[in-house]
Amino acid sequence: MSVTLSDSAAARVNAFLSNRGKGFGLRLGVRTSGCSGMAYILEFVDAPQPEDQVFEDKGVKVVIDGKSLVYLAGTELDFVKDGLNEGFEFRNPNVKDQCGCGESFHV
Q1: Selection from 89, 57, 56, 94 nearest residue 72 by Cα
Q2: d(C-alpha 83, C-alpha 62), whole Å
Q3: Across-strand partners of 88?
Q4: Minimal CA–CA distance to 28: which of 81, 74, 85, 82?
Q5: CA 60 to chain centre
Q6: Distances (CA, A) of 75 to 23, 33, 101, 106
Q7: How many whole angstroms separate alpha carbon 74 and alpha carbon 35?
Q8: For each of the chain's 107 residues, which pLDDT tens digit applies?
Q9: What are the start-end ranges of the H helices in the chain?
Q10: Do 45 and 25 meet the contact criterion of CB atoms below 8 Å apart?
Q11: Could you report how far apart the first and last alpha carbons of the chain are, in Å?
Q12: Using an 8 Å Cβ cutoff, are 65 and 72 in contact?
């Protein structure tokens, strides 16, 4: 099962990569953190590592390490604007609960 991007997330990532002037794609991952146990990682990647899985959706290469893929399988990354606030939002079907601030989760 792969990870997908909404149209707005793909457009935002492509704009960031274009402004950056280089980059292979976007790395998604998880790390141990927060009050619920896990937090998302979102960063640009210039070259995938041998243990990475690479998915492509709407022209964006999404890079995920094998450990994180277990927690992210089926996730859709969205980019949302709400008034003056904007940011990426993870729609992860594996999440069982998350902290009140939405910064961490557990599966």
Answers
A1: 94
A2: 28
A3: 79
A4: 74
A5: 12
A6: 22, 19, 19, 14
A7: 23
A8: 588 999 999 999 999 999 998 899 999 998 887 565 778 899 999 999 999 999 999 999 999 998 999 888 899 999 999 888 899 988 888 776 665 555 555 56
A9: 7-20, 66-72
A10: yes
A11: 17
A12: no
Radius of gyration of the CA atoms of the chain, in A: 14
Question: Tokens 């998350």 sit at which residue?
Answer: 98
Q: Do the beta carbons of residue 45 and residue 9 sit within 8 Å?
A: no
* Residues counted in the chain: 107
Contact between 3 and 72 under an 8 Å Cβ cutoff? The reply is yes
Strands of the sheet with 37-45, listed across from one edge: 52-57, 60-65, 25-33, 37-45, 105-106, 97-98
Q: For residue 30, which amino acid is it?
A: V
Structure tokens at 8: 């707005």
